[in-house]
Structure prediction request, 61 residues.
Amino acid sequence: MFQVTVDADKCTGDSNCVDTCPTSVFELQDNKAVPVNMDECLGCESCVEVCETGAITVKEI
Ligand code: SF4
Prediction:
């Protein structure tokens, strides 16, 4: 199981993670990415790679 966090101060709302995540973990809310389906995370870190501001952290828990 993985814990996905988004630093809202760094998130620019470009939705790269929303578009990239294979299991639709993220949703944009008020122009910020929110990990609404964290239970579905595969730990692939694709979101971490595409995030231009380094706002996303994925940690195995
Ligand atoms: S690590 Fe992969 S599965 Fe998990 S939120 Fe990021 S893109 Fe989605």
Remarks:
- The mean pLDDT is 98.
- Residues 2-60 form a domain with the Alpha-Beta Plaits fold (CATH 3.30.70.20).
- Helices lie at 16-20, 46-50.
